[in-house]
């Protein structure tokens, strides 16, 4: 089976940095995705890691360690609009995604 | 370019009734996926189409759920008869073939919120 864990909630101040951790145990691995989802909207793609290391895209970075079954999403220079749910998802060998329950990030002024 | 669209956005039905959800993927995307999120739980995979063929339907909960993708364009997901535990948000996603995208990421629709009373 698939087991993907991430914290339920995180709160941070505008302009700060937040790191959302994700650990996974899955039967197959063909990449790890991070999606952002605002309430009532579609999950939108943020980042993708398939090799170990750090991928940086503007204010967002994502890290992967396959040997440890671990990833994190780093959000820098937090803005109010970054308040959302962040979903960690592992793609298996057959291309379907297994999701964590999501981390709700609240950015305070 | 239009994204993945889903219809309806909300549906409220009574137990025992039938509901049909529709998904229009991004034009040219051969891969179409259905997922579901029930209250308080994670998004879970239901099934995967490649064009009009069912590639993987291992996540379908039971035979009350029927998905089709005639012609390989839009897809429907029918629940008949609906039960209380079918309530949740049903997401559709689509992606290009592997060779067409660096990440082959799945693009999600906004979901259909289904409430069974």
Short description:
Chain A is mostly beta strands. Helices cover 0% and strands 57% of the residues of chain A.
Keywords:
heterodimer; A: mainly beta; five-stranded antiparallel sheet; 11 strands; B: 117 residues; mainly beta; seven-stranded mixed sheet; four-stranded antiparallel sheet
Write structural notes for this entry:
The complex is a heterodimer of chains A (109) and B (117). Chain A has 109 residues and is mostly beta strands. Helices cover 0% and strands 57% of the residues of chain A. Chain A has no helices and eleven strands. Chain A has strands at 3-5, 9-13, 18-25, 32-37, 44-49, 53-57, 60-65, 70-75, 84-91, 97-99, 103-108. In chain A, the strands form two sheets. In chain A, strands 2, 4, 5, 9, 10 and 11 form a six-stranded mixed β-sheet that branches. In chain A, a hairpin with a 6-residue loop joins strand 4 (32-37) and strand 5. Chain A is globular, with a radius of gyration of 13 Å. The N and C termini of chain A lie far apart (41 Å). Chain B is mostly beta strands. Chain B is built from no helices and eleven strands. Chain B has strands at 5-7, 10-13, 19-24, 31-37, 43-50, 53-56, 65-68, 75-79, 88-95, 107-108, 112-116. In chain B, strands 2, 4, 5, 6, 9, 10 and 11 form a seven-stranded mixed β-sheet that branches. In chain B, a hairpin with a 2-residue loop joins strand 5 and strand 6. Chain B is globular and about 40 Å long. The model of chain B has no long low-confidence stretch (mean pLDDT 93). The A-B interface holds A 4, 31, 33, 35, 40-45, 48, 87, 89, 94-102 and B 3-4, 31, 33, 35, 40-45, 48, 55-56, 59, 91, 93, 95, 103-111.
